[in-house]
Specification:
- The complex is a heterodimer.
- Chain A is mainly beta.
- Chain A has no helices and 11 strands.
- In chain A, the strands form 2 sheets. In chain A, strands 2, 4, 5, 6, 9, 10 and 11 form a 7-stranded mixed β-sheet that branches. In chain A, strands 1-3-8-7 form a 4-stranded antiparallel β-sheet, with no helix packed on it.
- The radius of gyration of chain A is 13 Å and the shape is globular.
- The model of chain A has no long low-confidence stretch (mean pLDDT 93).
- Chain B contains no helices and 11 strands.
- In chain B, the strands form 2 sheets. In chain B, strands 2, 4, 5, 9, 10 and 11 form a 6-stranded mixed β-sheet that branches.
- Chain B starts with a strand and ends with a strand.
- Classes of the chains: A mainly beta, B mainly beta.
- At the A-B interface, strand 4, strand 5, strand 9 and strand 10 of A face strand 5 and strand 10 of B.
């Protein structure tokens, strides 16, 4: 069974640009969560989607948004990039929103110059 | 507000020794406490988890100890091996499913 797939693996952007990250969950998993990982802040929850609906949202500005498609694949968008957005963005899937076992992808390393 | 506090930030242990990582939480609504292991260049992987109705859970060399009254839980790695060198995260979940993570502990096991 394929794991969680995140693309691209690396991204370099400049301030003010926008970026879209993609996540394909494990087959059969319907919940997708996004996390931001930085050396100083650890893993910070961004949002969770289940059945194309946002179920939970973390404390991030509106520049961070996401969506989920009918096949459970998810995308995360960050607009008007700032230097502080440089981080590893991790996607995790689970069977359902109530299922607490998370399966993480390898992440997208975003560098904002 | 930091809801899950993890310590130490880094830990160096000799091969064969015991590694102990501690976490404390504040929210009594948390009802699921997993530990994740992360190697460089990879995402975190679920290692072991416990629910608050038990005080200890063991899987191989990994044991979670849970103290509900103190709102603390810890990961013990027995007979630590160089291959265990990684970053470990504790987490806590509410019934709504949202995971709150500790800041991580970088474990180095010296041969």
């Amino acid at each position: 069974k394929a794991g969680v797939t995140q693309t691209p693996r690396y991204l370099i952007k400049t301030r003010g640009q926008q970026v879209t990250l993609s996540c394909s969950p494990i087959s059969g998993h319907r919940s997708v969560s996004w996390y931001q990982q930085t050396p100083g802040q650890g893993l910070q929850f961004l949002f969770e989607y289940f059945s194309e609906t946002q179920r939970n949202k973390g404390n991030f500005p509106g520049r961070f948004s996401g969506r989920q498609f009918s096949n459970s694949r998810s995308e995360m968008n960050v607009s008007t990039l700032e230097l502080g957005d440089s981080a590893l963005y991790l996607c995790a899937s689970s069977l359902s929103s109530a299922q607490k076992k998370l399966f993480f992808g390898s992440g997208t390393q975003l560098s904002v110059l | 507000q930091q809801q899950v506090k993890q310590s130490p930030q880094s830990l160096i242990v000799q091969k064969g020794g015991i590694s102990i990582i501690n976490c404390a939480y504040e929210n009594t609504a948390f009802d699921y406490f997993p530990w994740y292991q992360q190697f460089p260049g990879k995402g975190p992987a679920l290692l072991i988890a416990i629910r608050p109705d038990v005080s200890e859970k063991k899987e191989g060399r990994f044991t979670i100890s849970f103290n509900k009254s103190a709102k603390q839980f810890s990961l013990h790695i027995m007979d630590s091996q160089p291959g265990d060198s990684a970053t470990y995260f504790c987490a806590a979940n509410t019934n709504a499913g949202k995971s709150t993570f500790g800041d991580g502990t970088t474990l180095t096991v010296k041969p």
